[in-house]
Amino acid sequence: MTAVDVTEHESWFHRNQQRIAPWLFLAPGVLFFMVYVIIPVFQSFNLSLYEWDGLGAAEYVGMRNYEDLYWEWVDRDAFYVSLKNNLIWLVMYLLAIPAGLFIALFLNQTVWGIRLYKSLFFFPFVISQVVVGLVFTWFYDPTFGLLNEFLSWFGLGPVNILGDERFVTYGIIFAGLWPQTAYCMILYLTGLNAVDPEQIEAGRLDGAKGGRMLWHIILPQLRPATFIAFVVTIIGALRSFDLISIMTQGGPFGSSRVLAYYMFEVALSEYGFRMGYGAAIAVILFLIMLCFIAYFLWSMYREEKGH
């Protein structure tokens, strides 16, 4: 290689290094995302077309696993209960977003003791789901739990939240809302720090106060935080597993199952290592997540395009 060739090679690199550098930094993350997310998604699609116990040879069965899920839905069996509970989780879990927003608005004030309040509201976010599940299991206990102690002050009898099919799903969701609200609060606190003070001042000069200020000036600037909060909350609601495993293990009588826990049961638990059937449930769960997130992305895109 001549000196002229080396000079040309170096000059090309120097001319394009600003374009190349971002791709070099992104490459490890993209590689890990492909290996641990994208490829397993396609493997799950493929596995859902087979009957496989995890050890022997896999038998191709086409859409039979999906047909079995359909008949479970028609007969209102385990899949129906799991999907219904997931929809309840999804609707109620979204309450964490407005709750997190209002707590963040409160904590964004400069009042005495605000650091203590921030620490108390931040605490649920740093503890694990296992600890949350154990704490609320004790809280709901019909013999010594604080909930029933509180109800006894009003002359109400003990309520077995986790042992009653009518209340168990809502009790677990309430436990999950505690750390999820803290997470949304942190997102909105970060977003509030980026709110343009000049727009706030301009709104005050125009007479905007309270709800009008919040709706027309603050919330539009919190769209990125709201988007992340929606996506993370939807994913958290649909893949809920930890709290159910710790608090009820799907009981009583399977009434608190969700799709993620049912997938675990049929693939790895006492139902008999039906890997293909579990993969079919995973595919259904993935498609539900995809639909919700795609709809929200499309709505945000149309709003941005409209502006």
UniProtKB/TrEMBL annotation:
| Protein family per UniProt | Belongs to the binding-protein-dependent transport system permease family.
Q: What Pfam families does the annotation carry?
A: BPD_transp_1
| Naturally occurring in which organism (per UniProt) | Ruegeria intermedia
What is its subcellular localisation?
Cell membrane
Q: Where are the transmembrane segments?
A: 20-42, 87-108, 120-140, 167-192, 213-238, 277-298
Keywords in UniProt for this one? Answer: Cell membrane, Membrane, Transmembrane, Transmembrane helix, Transport
Tell me the Gene Ontology biological-process terms attached to this UniProt entry: transmembrane transport
Residue ranges of domain ABC transmembrane type-1 in the record: 82-296
Protein name as annotated: Carbohydrate ABC transporter membrane protein 1, CUT1 family
Give the membrane topology, semicolon-separated if more than one: Multi-pass membrane protein
Gene Ontology cellular component terms for the protein in this record: plasma membrane
State the InterPro entries in the record.
Answer: ABC_transporter_permease, MetI-like, MetI-like_sf
